[in-house]
Every structure is written in C-alpha cells, then in structure tokens.
Amino acid sequence: MEGDSTLQLRVFDLNCWAIRYLSKRRQERVRLIGDSLRRHRFDLALLQEVWSEQDYSDLKARLESCYPFSHYFRSGVIGSGLCVFSRFPILDTLLYQYSLNGYPYMLQHGDWFCGKSVGLDRGSCWHGGGVTPTLPPPCQLHAEYSREKDAYLPHRLVQAWELAQFIRHTSKAADVVLLGGDLNMHPEDVGIRLLRGWAGLQDAFTEATRFEGCEDGCTLIPNNCFTVKSELLPFPLGIRIDYILYKAISSFTVKCEELKTTTGTAPGGDIPFSDHEAVMATLHIQRQGQAAGAHPGTTEPTLVDVVTEARTEVGVGLRAARRQRYSSGRMAVLALLLLLLQAAAALGTLAGLAAEQPFPKLSFSLLAFLAIGVLLLAAGLHLFHTMEVKMLQGTEEQLRMALRALQERL
Predict the structure, then answer these.
(1) What are the residue numbers of the active site?
(2) Contact 59, 67 (CB under 8 A)
(3) Are residues 388 and 401 in the same domain?
C-alpha cells in the first residue's frame, strides 16, 4: 500500500438498556434502533444489553442488507448482551468473561448472572489496495450502584485490568484497535485511567476535532425518560460512562474527526433508543510510510500513580473478601456443630437415654432442615469468597509486578 492510503471509519455504540421481555417498550425500541442503523449505515455498530437472542435475530434480519456480517456473544446465565454488526468481513471471534463479576446473591443487581465480558471480532477493512485488520470488541463492565459506597469497585478494577491486558495481548497482529461499550466508569475514575494508560488507548471524546451532542459528552442524562432521576441528582448535566476508545498499532495513525451523541427521542418515535445516549464516532485511519509504535494514553510517571491507586483499591477489596470468607466459614462451622448436636440428641433418644420424655419429631426435623440449609448456604458463600480472594490476590500481584516494571523504566 502507498503511504497516503486512508480510510474513514464510522462507528456506532449503544447500551440498549436491558432489551429483554420485561423492558419498557422493548419491541418499539428494537425497531427504532434497526431503522436508525439502516438509515445511517455506520461501518460498525456495537451494542450492549441485548439480552434476548430473539431481538438480536430480529435486528440481524432487518439489517442484513446493509450489515452482512454480525456476531452475538453468549455467556453467563442470561447472556452477555453483546453483539456487533459490521459492513466488513468478520474473520475471527473470541469472548473473554471476567474472572470477577459481582455476587450471585445480589439478585436485585443481576450482573453476576449475565457474565459480563469483552468480545473480540477480528475483521478487515478494504482500502487503498490492501487489508487493515481491526479489533472492534464491544464490552461492558460491572455497574456502579452507589457512588458513595461502591462495593463493586474492586471487581470493576479487576475487570478494567483484565480488559487492558486482553487488549495488549490480542492486538499485536492488528493495525488498529477499537473499543466501544458501557464501561460504567466516569472519565476521571481510576479504572478508566488504568485502562487507557496500560492499554495505550485514546478517548474519542477528548481527541475529537468536532463534537456534537450532550454537554461534556454525557451519555446518561436526567432528561431521558428512561433514566432514574434520583441517581443523577449529584450530576445535573449527567455522566459520561459510554466510550469509544482506539489506538493504532503498526504503521497506521488514527484520528477522531467527529464525535456525536444522541440527545433525545429517536427519529420517528416519541422515546429514546435507551436510557443511555448512543455514541457515534468518525475515525480517520491513515497508513504511514513506516511502522509507528503504540501511543500510550498516559505517561509512565502518571501511570505509576494510577497503577498504585488501583492496587490500593484492589487491596481494600481483598481484605473485605477475606472478612466475608471468614464470616461464611464461621457460619458453616456453627451450622455443622448444630447438626452434630442434633445427631447426638437423636442417638441418645434411640439408645433409650431419654425414653421417659416424648421426642419432639416435628421441631427436631424443622431445626435439622434449617441447619442443613444454613450449612449449604454458608459453604457455598465460603467457596465463592475463596475464589474471590484468589482472583483479587492474582490481580494485586499482577499490579505489583506491573508497578515494579514501570518504576524500573523511570
């Protein structure tokens, strides 16, 4: 290829807000999303929270003429909700499910059941007489349910670190890396700074030559009819948690020419696509005459501080997980002791040691079932928190080694 060969890549990213059977006006929103994608004909469309495979199939049938290539990523109990539609051939796919993803007993949140993941599609874009491999993975990290008491911060940091490592180790054969999704982190949060700095990603919003949309690029805004207004009271303008990130790997450069967000109701309807605003980026990709190195998003001295902060937060989560493991283990031991006492009482009755007194069979049986239930629950929690401790320990060790390597290079 010649050095002046270029490509303009238009990317659409949307968290579809729990498109499933009980979601508000689900079928209408699916139709509006499909109509918009057909009308604008983006090169890539990255969608999250499409939990219903039937909705994905409906979108695929509706978009087949303009998006001949698509893929749905399956994981967890109810599915990852991740899918991608592409005008370019998809050559290879991979799904990586994060090692930590919340707690199974937090049923009201449900993140654990969907198996939060990152999906990788290795595709190709024809331009200038050659083929440019690209990596457009849709992804979603664990939600933040409380800004003040964020019990899931250690899990989200583990996910951000694994996502950064995933990108570093899978992008070596690519020319351009694109990452789009709902990262559930504010731009200044340690997790997003860790992801950008360690993976060398650039933020399309901060790098865009032109921007059009919600103020400060917010993607969760109070005047959206589907948002929970009380959760955004501390943020009158809204928050930015949906991103399009990118970097060039080999002999290519990438610049964001334009970034847009939706700002209200979808064209042809009286409702938005989702409780999240869609993010749309136009990227200018150009091949240079010689190979270019990766462009880190954060300088090494700053990255040292970011990794240190992340390691500290993971350490806090590790200590909390150890306390929960101890509490569940103690509960299991107490339940086991209660069962042993009941067994001893039953054996004493059978041996005739208490023949002069009637044996309360109903109360004994109820207490035994209760003890067995507590034992099984406590044992399951102890096992889960043991695995959580190991995952947090592993990430803390990886962050320690990364920090040592950064400090040696300074």
Answers:
(1) 276
(2) no
(3) yes
